[in-house]
Amino acid sequence: MYQHDDLPRGRTRPNPRKLRLAGLAAVGALLAIGGWGLVSRYHAGIRLAQDAAVRAIPTVVVLKAAPAAANDELVLPGDVQAYYEAPIYARTSGYLKTWLTDIGTPVKKGQMLGEIDTPDVDDQLRQAQADLATAEANDRIAQSTDRRWQMLLATDSVPRQEAEEKAADAAAKDALVASAKANVARLQQLEDFKRVVAPFDGVVTARNTDIGALINTGSGIGPELFRVADVSRLRIYIRVPQPYVAAVKPGMTAALHFAEYPRRTFPATLVRTAQAIDPAARTLLVELRAENPRGELFPGGYTEVHLRVPTPADNVLLPVNTLLFRAEGLRVAKLGAGNRVVLVPVTPGRDYGTKVEVVDGVRPGDPVILNPPDSLAEGQLVRVAAPPSKDKGK
Description:
With about 400 residues, the chain is α+β, with helices and mostly antiparallel strands. Helices cover about 30% and strands about 35% of the residues. The strands form five sheets. A six-stranded antiparallel barrel has the order 3-10-13-12-11-14. Strands 2-15-20-19 form a four-stranded antiparallel beta sheet, with no helix packed on it. It has a four-stranded antiparallel beta sheet with strand order 7-6-4-9.
């Protein structure tokens, strides 16, 4: 038997001080491990917040605003017309006696195209000439009588009233002569109109009559007898859309393309504009002139007019996906100092489908954000990414 405080042989009693030190060391280790965990979690939270803040910054692609081309080619359909073109109607009635020119015949001014037989006018002219002869005979007698009565009136041999009546009769007879001469002249002109002549140098483009056809006097009553056109020069009419009218000026040159001449172009010059926009089509009527000395081009046809329109130097050309449609108007997002967004109002010009011309708000070389998100706000910080390669955009 041994007492409680006694230990077996070979074993020593633990030192209380060492036990306390061991306990304190274990507690310190646990505290260090806990502190390290708290510090790690704190730094991880900071890194996570920083990473979230970085990820919250939108990434954008920026491109330089390209200047618009110095000259823009405007392609419009054109109507070709002869420089002069006139339908020829009869000025006297009768029957067509003969025609001397057919379609495609070159004619000179005053050249006879056809002749009309007018028996009724011939009879009227002969009657008018006979009436003129009668009026002249009566006038000679009246003038002679008036002279004699004026001599007798000078010696108070006849009453003054009768002498005045003779003078009035002579004046009336003189007026009848003038009237008869006018009638003869009118009928003589109708006789002259028996010859249908060309009003100017040109080509006969239509013949709508034949020998023996009944001819009626005047424009619009009967069909036109002939049509003559001057094709040595041509008028070309185009309608320019409203966005281009300010740049269209007389003296500009254009190139004409015809389907019948696929490998050739013909020069033309802009000579005048209507100086007013058609309110229905919002276009400006423009006339061009082209020389046609060899008659290769025909009036009445269609041509494709290529017109080079100058562009202001400050205009830029932007892709359509750089535009922001906001309630306050059209905007473009530019990259400002410190990678901050600057929203600027812009004025669009001509629309080319995938690109649009901007005439105000952006200058050549300005950094513009491509495909900006709708949530982009003024002053927002952005991250700039590399622009897409040209090969991918093709």
